[in-house]
Amino acid sequence: EVPDDQIQSNVLRYDGTGWHTVVDAAFDEEFTYGEFSGVYGFSSTDVWIVGSNILHWDGIDWTPHAATLVRTGPTSATVITLDSTLHGNFFNAIWGTSSGNLFAVGANGIIVHYDGSGWTKMESGTSLTLYDVWGSGSTDVYAVAMDFFSAQWTVVHYDGSTWQEIAVDAAPFNRPGGVWGTNAKNVYVVSNFVSQFDGSTWKQLVVPNTIYTMTGVDGSKSNDVFVVGSFGVVMHWNGSTWHQYDELLRPDGSIGLRGVWTDGKEVFAVGSSGTQAIIIRGTRL
Question: How many helices (H) and strands (E) in the chain?
Answer without folding.
Answer: 0, 27
